[in-house]
Amino acid sequence: MLLTKLWVVLLVLLFQKCDCKSRTNITLPSDLLIGTASSAYQIEGAWNVDGKGESIWDRMTHNMSFAIKDGSNGDVACDSYHKIKEDVDIIHRLGVQFYRFSVSWTRILPTGFPNRVNKAGIRYYNKLINSLLKRGITPIATIYHWDLPQSLQDLGGWANPFIQEWFENYAKVLFENFGDRIKVWVTINEPKQICSFSYSKGVHAPVIVSEGIGVYLCYHNLLKAHARVYHLYNTTYRPLQKGKIGINIETTWFEPATDSAADKSAAERMWQFECGISAHPIFSEKGDYPKLVKYIVAKRSKEEGFPRSRLPRFKPEEISFIKGTADFFGINHYATLKVRPMKLLKGVSELNDIGAHVVGGRNESWSYYFQRYFKSVPWGFTKLLKNIKYRYQNPDVYIFESGVPDEGALNDQHRIKYFKENLAAVVSSIRDDRVNVRAFTVWSLMDNFEWQFGYTYVTSFKPTFD
Ligand SMILES: *[C@@H]1O[C@H](CO)[C@@H](O)[C@H](O)[C@H]1NC(C)=O
Ligand SMILES: *[C@@H]1O[C@H](CO)[C@@H](O)[C@H](O)[C@H]1NC(C)=O
Ligand SMILES: *[C@@H]1O[C@H](CO)[C@@H](O)[C@H](O)[C@H]1NC(C)=O
Ligand SMILES: *[C@@H]1O[C@H](CO)[C@@H](O)[C@H](O)[C@H]1NC(C)=O
């Protein structure tokens, strides 16, 4: 009910302000849930308050502030640790049905390990969850949204296979303490950003540059860690708590620049290296990494003189252990990009297998972007959803992030246009393509700390190309 009201208000605003060609109303399917989201490091602040331990983002922003565009950090951020009431009030005023937040690992386990559970941390999330429930807002929790304990990073972080056990132990504490009220869990937010931005390009904490090597160790351990937590929930907690659990993958839509075979295969490579590498092992019928990724990395590794593929191989029992470990496909969608094979660019690491983002690479297996990143491309969203349906056995899809940044101006016409067009695209995917989209999430609840961009406007996704 509340939701209908919200949308009427929003649509009236759209009609008043938006100079859009189409003025038709969007009727949202009654079973499509609408929500908003945040993540712990971006909003909580209180980085060392009440016993919280140091995370990799605390370490990076403090010790390498030069790597953050404005030298800022999340020490205070939106001060959500002290502002539960204010946060829940604004969520309630928005009229949304759910709120997806993430739990800070070091607020719960200051050492990273379950030997010491921080009671103040448990109290904070209990209070948040209870306040949401009291207002009729469904809480959805992300277990890991990038703020690894520094203590675990010192031991290799996601490159260390023991992370599987550490992550499972941490998740167990969350299920035990919050599982009676949290009915939707996201294990991990955005494997690509965790593995590629952090262990390949080194633009995110812990700033490790290990192109073509660290990135694959990370994926390998992360997928197994995710699967362990899924099985833990499925076997031990689901029978009592009766919730759902899945993973969130950032999915850009890659459109071939032209109809040429070369551009089409560039788009396919891009999909498989950027999304398939984490989606295929979980959601495809066969499991395992995509064939194309295995083939390209093995071939290039051999040419480069490595004794075996830089992409580790899953054992058959690991393939079945990971396959099917998600009750839904969580997607974060922001953009559509056109791709074509990349020309040789100077100054690029030899081991970058696709030349993702704005870095270049050599030869055949490379693609690159040549459009501004954030742009409303509703047909791209439609194609993406159809692609997920057909590639991955028609899963339930939870759109867990979508949105567009602004310059801090309140007159955000471009954002109104973006949401209007993209919601219409989602609705048409549900109606016409019968994609099982169950939820749409506006990112983010409020302005917050935007990782390497600090508190600045994210403009630098603008690709450079020759
Ligand atoms: C949109 O929906 C509202 C509320 O139901 C209605 O008052 C309005 O006339 C509709 N506008 C159009 C263009 O259909
Ligand atoms: C802090 O960063 C510098 C490089 O700027 C590095 O040499 C040093 O080891 C770092 N200290 C810690 C505690 O990570
Ligand atoms: C989850 O548990 C159910 C009930 O035991 C089982 O049938 C199902 O196969 C499990 N799912 C996975 C992916 O293992
Ligand atoms: C690809 O690499 C091969 C040899 O490694 C070279 O002969 C060819 O010119 C390269 N193609 C492009 C487009 O750079």
Automatic annotation (TrEMBL):
Give the originating organism.
Answer: Pyrocoelia pectoralis
- Any idea what this protein is called? Myrosinase 1-like
Q: Record's InterPro entries?
A: GH, Glyco_hydro_1
Q: By its UniProt entry, which PANTHER family does this protein fall under?
A: GLYCOSYL HYDROLASE, LP05116P
Transmembrane domains' residue ranges: none
Tell me the first and last residues of the signal peptide: 1-20
Key word Ligase present: no
Instruction: Give the record's family classification.
Output: Belongs to the glycosyl hydrolase 1 family.
Q: How does this chain assemble?
A: Homodimer.
Tell me the GO BP annotations in alphabetical order. Answer: carbohydrate metabolic process
Q: Which UniProt keywords apply?
A: Glycoprotein, Glycosidase, Hydrolase, Signal
Q: Which GO terms describe its molecular function?
A: beta-glucosidase activity
Q: Which Pfam families match?
A: Glyco_hydro_1
